[in-house]
Write a structure and sequence with these properties.
The protein has about 190 residues and is mainly β. Helix content is about 10%, strand content about 50%. Strands 1, 2, 3, 4, 5, 6, 7, 8, 9 and 10 form a ten-stranded antiparallel beta sheet that branches. The longest helix has 14 residues.
Length: about 190
């Protein structure tokens, strides 16, 4: 498929979505692009396939396939699958898994299949990870021999906070005292 054909298809898909269905109250509008898609306004659902991208402000989702669900013209739920589905929200949140369900009203993410979330340096991994965007609560579960893993970085080990050793070898740790300009020079 040529770049021009793909661009025209993406523009047509975006135009087919009603603007009111993509805007959640008090949030940024949602933009969806894909290689192919269908939105059924009466049913309140859409199916998008191939290089799917959903962007809402700083939140971005990338998937092979994505289903959107609306109610009364508002986006309420996103279901995505891929190898993997990826989500990012600015620099604070990175996530990926084989499947992702984003409940807009509850503001929760459920990731399944090699689920991974990194939030402000903390990482959570498991077969299934549920994450609340509001409370920052994480519930993770294992499957088979894949165990849950949590990594919390050391609090005081952020780059640039290490203290440099004193500039001289003064044993008592005090700064050296410079001679006053009025002091007599040391002459033998």
């Amino acid at each position: 498929m040529s770049l021009t054909h793909r661009l025209l298809r993406t523009i047509a898909l975006a135009a087919a979505l009603p603007v009111t269905a993509l805007a959640a109250p008090g949030q940024m509008p949602v933009s969806v692009t894909a290689d192919s898609g269908r939105f059924e306004q009466d049913a309140g659902s859409g199916l998008y396939r191939g290089n799917v991208e959903l962007i809402q402000g700083q939140r971005k989702l990338f998937a092979d396939e994505m289903r959107l669900f609306t109610r009364n013209g508002e986006l309420t739920r996103v279901e995505a699958s891929g190898t993997p589905v990826r989500m990012q929200e600015g620099k604070d949140l990175q996530a990926h898994a084989n499947n992702l369900v984003y409940d807009i009203r509850k503001r929760t993410l459920v990731l399944t299949g090699d689920a991974y979330i990194e939030h402000l340096g903390n990482t959570f991994e498991g077969a299934r990870v549920e994450y609340s965007l509001d409370s920052k609560r994480v519930d993770a579960s294992s499957e088979g021999d894949k165990r849950v893993r949590l990594v919390i970085p050391a609090e005081n080990q952020t780059p640039g906070t290490e203290q440099a050793p004193p500039a001289d070898d003064n044993a008592n740790g005090e700064a050296p005292v410079a001679p006053s300009p009025e002091a007599e020079p040391n002459t033998p």
